[in-house]
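Design request, tokens follow.
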């Protein structure tokens, strides 16, 4: 596990530099908040690092339901039963084993979708605020993907709405050097719309699920343009 500090934010990365999986742990005034939990086998390292910080774990926030983001939930909740588990209302269905689509949803849901034992303490919707963060709609990678935005510091926790590994990209834009987030994306058109909204916030620092954090939005604007061009070529054919 590789650890990097960005002020009050601890970035924990597994399988760097080839197949990086990120989780973020940030220091709130009352304790620690964990964003995503990597794979099940990574939970022990996350727990050890939390123990080193010697602060209570207040909450676990999930950006979406894929196994490389929720795999460690049960082990971490077992060690920290008072930490509240938050996930989007839509992706909670996926984690319960329900892969059915809503009437307005199209495309097969992709990627690893484990069933977790831990029950959410609270289902959240875009627009809510918790631990100083605003919950944002980031649908596309999964139907219920969400992002978290620290408005006061302009820091975005984007989950897999973007990646930087293999080159900055919008969810669904398959990058040959790291294709996995693109391949596992549910709806590329929806992902592009979500990406545009997130970029328009002009965050100064963007944490992603795979790859190093991005400073500013210049690379993401270029990634969005590329994704839109690919989408346009697809419609022309």
């Amino acid at each position: 596990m590789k650890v990097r500090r960005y002020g009050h934010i601890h970035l924990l990365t597994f399988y760097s530099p080839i197949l990086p999986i990120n989780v973020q742990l940030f220091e709130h005034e009352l304790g620690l908040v964990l964003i995503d939990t990597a794979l099940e086998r990574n939970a022990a390292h996350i727990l050890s690092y939390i123990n080193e910080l010697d602060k209570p774990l207040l909450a676990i926030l999930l950006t979406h339901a894929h196994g490389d983001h929720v795999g460690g939930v049960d082990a971490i909740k077992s060690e920290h039963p008072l930490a509240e588990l938050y996930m989007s209302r839509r992706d909670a269905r996926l984690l319960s084993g329900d892969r059915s689509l809503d009437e307005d949803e199209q495309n097969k849901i992709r990627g690893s979708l484990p069933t977790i034992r831990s029950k959410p303490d609270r289902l959240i919707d875009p627009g809510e605020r918790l631990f100083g963060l605003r919950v944002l709609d980031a649908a596309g990678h999964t139907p219920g993907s969400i992002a978290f935005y620290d408005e006061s510091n302009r820091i975005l926790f984007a989950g897999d709405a973007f990646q930087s590994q293999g080159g900055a990209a919008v969810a669904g834009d398959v990058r040959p050097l790291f294709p996995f987030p693109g391949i596992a994306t549910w709806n590329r058109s929806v992902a592009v719309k979500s990406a545009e909204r997130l970029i328009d916030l002009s965050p100064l620092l963007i944490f992603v699920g795979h790859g190093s954090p991005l400073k500013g939005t210049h690379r993401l604007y270029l990634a969005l343009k590329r994704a839109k061009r690919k989408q346009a070529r697809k419609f022309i054919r």
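Comment from the thread starter after seeing the answer: thanks! The longest strand covers residues 21-28.
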